[in-house]
Amino acid sequence: xxxxxxxxxxxxxxxxxxxxxxxxxxxxxxxxxxxxxxxxxxxxxxxxxxxxxxxxxxxxxxxxxxxxxxxxxxxxxxxxxxxxxxxxxxxxxxxxxxxxxxxxxxxxxxxxxxxxxxxxxxxxxxxxxxxxxxxxxxxxxxxxxxxxxxxxxxxxxxxxxxxxxxxxxxxxxxxxxxxxxxxxxxxxxxxxxxxxxxxxxxxxxxxxxxxxxxxxxxxxxxxxxxxxxxxxxxxx
Length: 236
Ligand code: OAD
Fold this sequence. Notes:
This protein is of the alpha/beta class. Helix content is 34%, strand content 18%. The protein contains nine helices and nine strands.
């Protein structure tokens, strides 16, 4: 039975059926790549062009992908539940936005914006590939960095607080396509469990969460999420 408020937590797996690489699956983004070389502030300080090449390659890959039926089902949930619905994503790919989700708490930032290394000002940047690497701030001429959260950096406080509050009050939580190993994002599903939410996990592989949830739905998100939603959407 689907009870509001609803919280949807997504990870790279929701975009896998769109052709976007996940991180930890076979052939994933972290295979053959050292996180310390491309996704830390130290790596950027050492070799900004190398870091930017890696992010720009991801931007090019994602630009050729389109949202799938799971992203669209999440949009329908927002349409139906309005302010009783919260979407929190670890993804930086922008596919929720392109599917039509309007309010998104992005825990790890976005591939589609850049940030000035001098004053932190953000600039939307949808061109892929970028014409020059590293890109330069149009205001002050300093270097721009990817607007993503790197390992060793803090998440935006207001975003994480809003996500944690949603996890505390949600009565139904859908956890879609995340390995649940990166904190603090992974703490949200645990907060929801502690507060007695009905937690449903969608993942082709079992995770540490699978034994704790009320429903574990195996399979690919583009199939399982719309089908679960069709079966449960009217059961409020
Ligand atoms: P992972 O790559 O760690 O996990 C992806 C999950 O998606 C795995 O549990 C897969 O079994 C599952 N999966 C694969 N294909 C799927 C499909 N078709 N449908 C549903 N699920 C599928 O990705 P995340 O959990 O998102 O952080 O990783 C979390 C964070 O680690 C990322 O945000 C990123 C990374 O390092 C930063 O860059 C800060």
